[in-house]
Amino acid sequence: MSCDAEQCGHCLNSPPSWQRLYCVGDYHRPISTFIHRLKFHGEFWQAKKLAHMLAPLIESPARQLTYVPLHWQRYMTRGYNQSELLAKSLGQILDIPCFPFFRRVRKTLPQLGLNSNQRKANLNQAFILRQARLSNHVAIVDDVLTTGSTVDGLCSLLRNAGVEKVDIYCICRTANVG
Q1: Nearest alpha carbon to residue 86 among 155, 38, 153
Q2: Angstrom distance (rounded) from CA 70 to CA 84
Q3: Each residue of 75-95: pLDDT tens digit?
Q4: CA 63 to each of CA 68, 90, 100: distance values in angstroms, whole numbers, following the listed order
Q5: 6-38 per-position pLDDT tens digit
Q6: What does the pLDDT read at residue 7?
Q7: Contacts with 52 (C-beta within 8 Å, 6 or more apart), sequence order
Q8: CA nearest neighbour of 63 among 96, 94, 21
């Protein structure tokens, strides 16, 4: 499924900060089960399987990949970042370099269970853009896109740094995203 933001009524009224959203599908079984196993049960091999599902859907790949970062405390607790694993697997498949362009500088509550406004407030000034050599076309990789609040903030950082085109590569989206 390649999701065109231009085709969504909500996105026509309130355009997202990205150009294209590529996703495997909606957050339903069996894909949601694979994501859950990757994210909460340490089944790292799920990242490669999920990346192989997403890669063929990407028609015009970005020149660089990056991913949604975890705060260092969450990273230490979990031991890995599922979005980073997905991005690196996808980068290998598509032969695109993957870089850690962002750093999470503020610990936030988990987004799960928060509504759109709470998510935006929760993420306020939570990320910074690292010094990096950016191309004009970058894709942000994430596992699940719910309201788009997280990637919206990251897109803004990239845009402010001069990136012309930002795409989102995710495995699933929920019904809340256009």
Answers
A1: 38
A2: 9
A3: 898 899 999 999 999 999 999
A4: 17, 12, 14
A5: 455 555 566 678 889 999 999 999 999 999 999
A6: 52
A7: 89, 93
A8: 96
d(CA 26, CA 45): 21
d(CA 125, CA 57): 32
CA distance 156 to 30: 32
Cβ neighbours of residue 44 closer than 8 Å, sequence gap 6 or more: 38, 80, 85
What pTM was estimated for this model as a whole? 0.85
Say if residues 151 and 142 touch (Cβ distance below 8 Å): yes
Would you mind telling me the total number of residues written for the chain in this entry? Answer: 178
CA gap 101, 58 in Å, rounded: 21
* CA 49 – CA 90 distance, rounded (Å): 10
Q: Which residues of 12-35 are buried (b: 16+ CB within 10 A; e: fewer)?
A: eeeebbbbbbbbbeebeeebbebb
> For residue range 120-155, what is the model confidence (pLDDT) as tens digits?
676 667 788 998 899 999 999 999 998 888 898 899
